[in-house]
Amino acid sequence: MTDLTNSFLHRKNILNNNAAVQEIYKQIGFLGVKFDGKYRFTKQQLAYFFEVDVRTIDRLLEDNKDELAASGYEVFTGVRLRLLKDLYTSIVTIDDEDDINVGLINHDADNEIIGSKASSAGVFTYKGFLNVGMLLNSDKAKSLRSAILDIVIDVLNTKLGGNAKYINQREEEFLPSAIREYNYRQEFTNALDFYITDNKFKYSQLTDKIYKSIFKEAAKEYRQILKLSSSESVRSTMYSEVLDLIASYENGFADFLRKKSEKAERKLSLSEAHLIFSDFEEMTEAIYKPSKEKARSIMASRDMAFRDALHEKLKEYVREVSSDDFNKFLGEKSISLEERLLENKDVFLRLKDR
DNA sequence: ATCACCTGTTTAGCCTGAAC
DNA sequence: GTTCAGGCTAAACAGGTGAT
Questions:
Q1: Which residue places its CA closest to the C1' of nucleotide C7?
Q2: Is the dihedral of CA A141, A147, A150, A152 positive or negative?
């Protein structure tokens, strides 16, 4: 069970998920005033919402300064504070009382939202508000947490139609990468045909070598972790960055193998090919290191956030998923492969006519 | 009118102690 | 043991005041 209060990663993965944050804003209904394009809440408003003392929010700020600053907490001073104060007073005076959100009402005369003489004020954004809710322990915060989790799960389900297996296909880059990789895969299998003596295991064994070199798992392990059935293709679940790297490996190794075979002036045995792969791996280690690390981190982090799958061997590579990534896979631009193919139909038709 | 200083308010940070 | 409340102080700051 995810415990938000003690998992920085899980908190980040929710706060970076813009689609979910928007949905939470709609459903929770704790409305703030818009300032600089973001909804803002003062410390007092948060304390009131969570039914804790203002000092408790202060403590939280002390202990989690960096995290909350990253979620949009700021101390307003000078001109910006002046503008914010004006905004609050104009809202409170203009709006009909019934329309004013409970968070905005001056519920206690001694405890204004921002004291008129305040020279600085701690201000949260909506993300900051949610972040506080994930760290506090008040009953209000607990119920907010469970609501947040419900909504996040709901958003994932609606966006993905309950199937996260092919979420990798929802970004723009997937299709071109898959097509490129398909072509290099052919180079690779052709090379295996030409330069390695007949052996029915050669494709799968050398493919596994590539997988293991890149993300430490053989196809079988990968299949288990993502709970793929035997009829489902492993590659159709891979992220574009991983596919690109596999394509590099396949193309590079195909060429390397050709040279070795031509030099020896004969076909090579599968066991020789395994040794040659080790040479290839050693030779390219420094070149591939950065892309390999990126691919591992992408795979481990995204699969954790989107597929709830843990790659045990890539544990140390799990990071937070960036908000860019959430947009890529769940945002406006993300669409299923079917839709993407329809969208690109013209391109394919043109290619076909050639 | 301008400058330096004073005053009141708020936050940050540290500590203690009560309640669960 | 953990969580929350409250006391305290230093520092930051806006707005006042009063001397020049």
A1: A55
A2: negative
**With a threshold of 0.85, does the pTM exceed it?**
no
Chain B: bases < 7 Å from a protein Cβ: 8-15
Task: Write out residues whose CB is closer than 7 A to strand C.
Answer: A 5, 52-53, 55-56, 59, 77-78, 81-82, 117, 119-120, 136-138, 141
Which residue's C-alpha is at the least distance from the C1' of C14? Answer: A119
How far does the CA of A139 sit from the C1' of B18, in Å? 19
Q: Which long-range contacts (CB under 8 A, 24 or more apart) does A162-167 make?
A: A164/A306, A164/A307, A164/A308, A165/A226, A165/A228, A165/A232, A165/A237, A165/A307, A166/A236, A166/A237, A166/A336, A166/A337, A167/A302, A167/A306, A167/A307, A167/A329
Q: Which residues contact A110 (CB under 8 A, 6 or more apart)?
A: none
Domain count of the fold of chain A: 2
Task: Give per-residue pLDDT as tens, A134-176.
Answer: 887 777 777 788 788 888 888 888 887 767 888 999 888 998 9
Provide the domain limits for residue A97: 4-160
pLDDT over 90 at A118, yes or no: no
Q: Is A134 in the same domain as A172?
A: no
Position A101 scores a pLDDT of: 43
The arithmetic mean of pLDDT across residues A58-67, rounded, is 76
DSSP A269: P
- Among A127, A160, A193, the domain boundary falls at A160
The answer to whether the beta carbons of residues A201 and A132 sit under 8 Å apart is no
